[in-house]
């Protein structure tokens, strides 16, 4: 099995696993139904990853380089994705 990511894309599975364990530990004193735990496990990492994706994908960290042989200008942009889906 392969896991494919670029940039901060590795934070997608990490945030889902961390949120799941945090919700399970928080469920002990709260006594929430398990269906709510799974809904929150989708919403909390989703909101975090949406915020992070907006921040890192809209950052102006492009590099402009020139090819020596052709003189063509190239724009290099950092991408952040998990399985080719942008965060």
Compact summary:
The chain is α+β, with helices and mostly antiparallel strands and 87 residues long.
Describe this entry's structure for a reader.
By secondary structure, this protein is of the alpha+beta class. It has one domain. Helix content is 51%, strand content 16%. A 3-stranded antiparallel β-sheet has the order 1-4-5, with no helix packed on it. Strands 2-3 form a two-stranded antiparallel sheet. Strand 2 and strand 3 (73-76) form a beta hairpin. The protein is elongated, with a radius of gyration of 19 Å. The model has no long low-confidence stretch (mean pLDDT 87).
Features:
single chain; 87 residues; two-stranded antiparallel ribbon
Task: Kindly estimate the percentage of residues that lie in beta strands according to DSSP.
Answer: 15-25%
In what order do the strands lie side by side in the largest sheet?
Answer: 1-4-5
Low-confidence stretches: none
Largest sheet composition = 3 strands, antiparallel
Helix/strand order, N-terminal first: EHHEEEE
Radius of gyration: 19 Å
């Amino acid at each position: 099995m392969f896991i494919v990511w670029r940039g901060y894309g590795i934070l997608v599975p990490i945030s889902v696993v961390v949120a799941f364990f945090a919700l399970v530990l928080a469920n002990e004193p709260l006594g929430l139904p398990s269906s709510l735990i799974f809904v929150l496990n989708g919403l909390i990492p989703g909101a975090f990853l949406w915020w992070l994706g907006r921040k890192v994908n809209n950052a102006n960290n492009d590099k402009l380089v020139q090819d020596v042989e052709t003189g063509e200008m190239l724009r290099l942009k950092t991408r952040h994705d998990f399985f080719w889906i942008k965060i």
